Amino acid sequence: MKLSEIVKILEVEMVGDDKEIDGMNTLMSADSNEISFFHNGKYLKELPLTKAGAVILDKEFVKHLPVHTTALISDEPYLKMARLTKYFVKPLKRDGEKTISESADIAENVTIGGGSEIGANTTIMSGVSIGADVVIGENVTIYPNVTIYNDTKIANNVTIHAGSVIGSDGFGYAHTKTGEHVKIYHLGNVVIEDDVEIGANTTIDRGVFGSTTIKKGVKIDNLVQIGHNCEVGEYSIMVSQSGLAGSTKLGRNVVMGGQSAAAGHLKIAPFTQIAARGGITKSIKESGIYGGFPLLPQKTWLRLQAKINGLLKK
Hints:
This protein has 314 residues and is mainly beta. The protein is built from three helices and 36 strands. 37% of the residues are buried.
């Protein structure tokens, strides 16, 4: 799609050269054939470093763009980005040869999309739906009624329990000035590394751009929600009903207790433990055991509760 076509779709002003655009991506991941957006001053330092062919942004920030990047000027860059995502969605149904190992054991009523690959000694049980261009490695076990969306990558020795959904769109919308919700189509995927186990009825959303990544050795309980573009570090554990909002990154060996949750765009230090029902609203830079809401070191939280109970008794 030409930038001049995008200008008409979004009703924006173009400053710079017209060029062919074949995708969307973040500022730091985009290449010369992709378009990105900028709407948060927190990431201003990334703007001069982008290799994107074009960026949607407010007029005041155009001066920070590198000379090779075309500016698409709007006072609502996030909303314009959302409107544009639907034009870069890949077809849901795709042709392509399937590659299935002879040693794979696949139930008769499993559906597999075009271009997908199934590795050796993998077992796929009744009612599983696998999308297009999915790669599933060796010694994988997928229990009944799991849904795996297009472009998901699953490595070796992975177990996914019944009813889980891998790769659905995240909960992402931009909002107009009159309060309407504009869907952000998620163009990325989910990547699951070796030796991961995912419990029943867990949901892992695909990235908006790029990947949601579940790293090696992670163990996820039933009924867990992982938002778009999250990264769950090696050997981390997420207990039932815990959840991560979009773009939060857990370090290695983090433990999320039952019903604990993290807000979006946070970083959690390796070997951190969050007690049951703990609420994380800020990044955690030092590993430790935390609990409560607002989140505190767990021992401090328990002492605080004891003091409050004492005051109430008096």
